[in-house]
């Protein structure tokens, strides 16, 4: 077998089904910032975008240099060779192992599928292939604990897969970019998972205790019935829950929650707080204005909020909105950092985290 490293011509990106256009616009735009050009191909509602670089040599530079954490619409990515097609149904393992045989050494193998009905129907196949593929790859040293990369095989059908690799630390640390979270039975609403997922994306895995300090105060705008407040209460925070709607009774009995029946757009905290979270579904421009007010006045140090996506030119509009937040803070001498992601639990929206840096 030749030792030549194969040609990684593509970057495969996974996104929410229906957002392939946004994901494509984003990767083309962001790749250009580091001098990498290319084009995207995608099928409608496939949840997969294939970015093909004009110069294949730039693909590894792209997935190693561009910060994955700054990508909004991509849930997962990896550099890939050309699609492996016509996999023999009776022996997919040999063909796939051969495809990955000349890759730089990888430390683990992830078998993934797009987040679509068709994709989900392939997950059983993935489960069945995981062990035999691992064994085969280990048998000729392609998979070793000391490997630098993560090996990905993304099945788009039973007989075809994208095979490639990502750099751990600059990819999503979950299969398919979806943290598997269990709905906590005691939580008052399913929305609770949105805030928990946001923390998984935006907070360092070993820093939750420091970031969400027990005893500190948070404001939850648009809090009812209390799914987000519940998350904050679980971490020991005290919460001003702002909503004209009713809050969950058990949550109120914890005595960690003050219910303020008020308009979230007019509410001013009696003192600065550690966190402000906001799950009010309103015009994104209005939400950005609200966030700017909180940050410029330093009413909170950190915030997680939702931005409903506009109907058209969604990537462009999101960039404009986030630029406006940055400009509002810059104009007032307030330093912030932010990141944004379309979470698994987000539908027609993205979730943003902002923090004051001084
Ligand atoms: C999606 S729900 C929030 C769910 C909540 N995060 C949870 O986890 O249970 C949106 C909430 O925003 C509230 N809301 C809408 N406009 C508001 C406003 N101007 N001020 C305060 N709350 C508002 C609604 O009453 C509703 O309870």
From TrEMBL:
<keyword id="KW-0808">Transferase</keyword>
<dbReference type="Pfam" id="PF21239">
    <property type="entry name" value="RLMM_N"/>
</dbReference>
<keyword id="KW-0698">rRNA processing</keyword>
<dbReference type="GO" id="GO:0032259">
    <property type="term" value="P:methylation"/>
</dbReference>
<feature type="binding site">
    <location>
        <begin position="224"/>
        <end position="227"/>
    </location>
    <ligand>
        <name>S-adenosyl-L-methionine</name>
    </ligand>
</feature>
<dbReference type="GO" id="GO:0008757">
    <property type="term" value="F:S-adenosylmethionine-dependent methyltransferase activity"/>
</dbReference>
<comment type="similarity">
    <text>Belongs to the class I-like SAM-binding methyltransferase superfamily. RNA methyltransferase RlmE family. RlmM subfamily.</text>
</comment>
<feature type="active site" description="Proton acceptor">
    <location>
        <position position="308"/>
    </location>
</feature>
<feature type="binding site">
    <location>
        <position position="191"/>
    </location>
    <ligand>
        <name>S-adenosyl-L-methionine</name>
    </ligand>
</feature>
<feature type="domain" description="RlmM ferredoxin-like">
    <location>
        <begin position="10"/>
        <end position="78"/>
    </location>
</feature>
<protein>
    <recommendedName>
        <fullName>Ribosomal RNA large subunit methyltransferase M</fullName>
        <ecNumber>2.1.1.186</ecNumber>
    </recommendedName>
</protein>
<dbReference type="InterPro" id="IPR029063">
    <property type="entry name" value="SAM-dependent_MTases_sf"/>
</dbReference>
<dbReference type="GO" id="GO:0006364">
    <property type="term" value="P:rRNA processing"/>
</dbReference>
<comment type="subunit">
    <text>Monomer.</text>
</comment>
<keyword id="KW-0949">S-adenosyl-L-methionine</keyword>
<comment type="function">
    <text>Catalyzes the 2'-O-methylation at nucleotide C2498 in 23S rRNA.</text>
</comment>
<dbReference type="InterPro" id="IPR002877">
    <property type="entry name" value="RNA_MeTrfase_FtsJ_dom"/>
</dbReference>
<dbReference type="InterPro" id="IPR040739">
    <property type="entry name" value="RlmM_FDX"/>
</dbReference>
<feature type="binding site">
    <location>
        <position position="263"/>
    </location>
    <ligand>
        <name>S-adenosyl-L-methionine</name>
    </ligand>
</feature>
<keyword id="KW-0963">Cytoplasm</keyword>
<feature type="binding site">
    <location>
        <position position="243"/>
    </location>
    <ligand>
        <name>S-adenosyl-L-methionine</name>
    </ligand>
</feature>
<dbReference type="InterPro" id="IPR048646">
    <property type="entry name" value="RlmM_THUMP-like"/>
</dbReference>
<dbReference type="InterPro" id="IPR011224">
    <property type="entry name" value="rRNA_MeTrfase_M"/>
</dbReference>
<feature type="domain" description="Ribosomal RNA methyltransferase FtsJ">
    <location>
        <begin position="189"/>
        <end position="281"/>
    </location>
</feature>
<feature type="binding site">
    <location>
        <position position="279"/>
    </location>
    <ligand>
        <name>S-adenosyl-L-methionine</name>
    </ligand>
</feature>
<feature type="domain" description="Ribosomal RNA large subunit methyltransferase M THUMP-like">
    <location>
        <begin position="91"/>
        <end position="166"/>
    </location>
</feature>
<keyword id="KW-0489">Methyltransferase</keyword>
<dbReference type="GO" id="GO:0005737">
    <property type="term" value="C:cytoplasm"/>
</dbReference>
<dbReference type="Pfam" id="PF01728">
    <property type="entry name" value="FtsJ"/>
</dbReference>
<dbReference type="Pfam" id="PF18125">
    <property type="entry name" value="RlmM_FDX"/>
</dbReference>
